[in-house]
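A reminder from the course coordinator: this example appears on the midterm review sheet, so study it carefully.

Given structure:
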C-alpha cells in the first residue's frame, strides 16, 4: 500500500509569510483551496500588491511540492491563467485532471452560495444566491477521487458563528451521489481545522465514505492510499485538530 501525503491549505488572505514553505510539512503534493488574497485584482488596482505576493507564494510552494490551486470568492477576477505560467503549479478551476503518479482524479470548483445574503454576490467573486445555479454547477462535475471546492458542503464544517449552515447543497448532493475519497474546502474560517465523514452513517458496513476537510487558515496533512481504497483516509496533522464527526 503506497500512501500519498497531501498538504491542503486555504484562506491565507494575503498573509503568505504565515504559510511559507519552510513552515510547512513534507508532502507529495499541495492543494490550495482559494482566497489567497483579500481583494485580488481589485486590491491590486488600489495598490495593495497582493497579487504579486500571491503569485510569489504559489511559486515558492511549487519549488517544494507539485501545487494545484483554485481561487476563492475574495480572489477578485482571478482566473486559471491570471498568474501566467508557474512551473510545477496548476490552476484547476473547472478542470478535471488525472494525477498519474497517485493515480487519482482531481477536480476544482470555486462557487460559494450566499442564499441568505444575496448582496454578497455583488461584492465578491464566484458567488450565487440561486440554488439552481449551485445544483447545476456540481451536477456538471464528473466523479473524481479528490474534489477541491472553495466552499464546504451544506451541514458539514460550514456553520457560521451563529450556527447557520453556509455550505453548498449542490456539493452535499455530489458527495452523496459520487462518494469521492476526499473533499478539500475552506471559506468558513471559523470551521478551519474541522473534518467529518459523509455520509455520517454508512448504509452498510464498509460502504464508502468521503472525508471532508475544511482547511481554512489551517494547513492540514492528509494521508491517503489510492492503490488501496479500503485504507482509511487519515488526517496526520492540522493546526487545531478539531473533529466534528
Ligand atoms: Zn476566506
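Designed residues:
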Amino acid at each position: 500500500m503506497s500512501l500519498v501525503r497531501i498538504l491542503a491549505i486555504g484562506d491565507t488572505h494575503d498573509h503568505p509569510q504565515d504559510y511559507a514553505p519552510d513552515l510547512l510539512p513534507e508532502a507529495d503534493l499541495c492543494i490550495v483551496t482559494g482566497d489567497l488574497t483579500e481583494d485580488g485584482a481589485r486590491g491590486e488596482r488600489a495598490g495593495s500588491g497582493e497579487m504579486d505576493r500571491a503569485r510569489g507564494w504559489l511559486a515558492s510552494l511549487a519549488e517544494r511540492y507539485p501545487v494545484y490551486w483554485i481561487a476563492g470568492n475574495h480572489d477578485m477576477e482571478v482566473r486559471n491563467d491570471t498568474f501566467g505560467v508557474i512551473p510545477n503549479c496548476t490552476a484547476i478551476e473547472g478542470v478535471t485532471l488525472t494525477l498519474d503518479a497517485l493515480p487519482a482524479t482531481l477536480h476544482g470548483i470555486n462557487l460559494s452560495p450566499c442564499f441568505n445574503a444575496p448582496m454578497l454576490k455583488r461584492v465578491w467573486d464566484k458567488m450565487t444566491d440561486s440554488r439552481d445555479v449551485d445544483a447545476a454547477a456540481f451536477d456538471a462535475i464528473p466523479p473524481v477521487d479528490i474534489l477541491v471546492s472553495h466552499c464546504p458542503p451544506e451541514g458539514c464544517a460550514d456553520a457560521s458563528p451563529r450556527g447557520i449552515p453556509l455550505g453548498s447543497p449542490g456539493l452535499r448532493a455530489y458527495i452523496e451521489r459520487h462518494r469521492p475519497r476526499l473533499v478539500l474546502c475552506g471559506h468558513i474560517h471559523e470551521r478551519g481545522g474541522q473534518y467529518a465523514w459523509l455520509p455520517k452513517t454508512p448504509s452498510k458496513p464498509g460502504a464508502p465514505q468521503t472525508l471532508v476537510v475544511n482547511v481554512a487558515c489551517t494547513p492540514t496533512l492528509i494521508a491517503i492510499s489510492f492503490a488501496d481504497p479500503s485504507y482509511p483516509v487519515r488526517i496526520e496533522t492540522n493546526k487545531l485538530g478539531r473533529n466534528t464527526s
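The chain has one domain: 4-238. The two ends are 26 Å apart (CA to CA).
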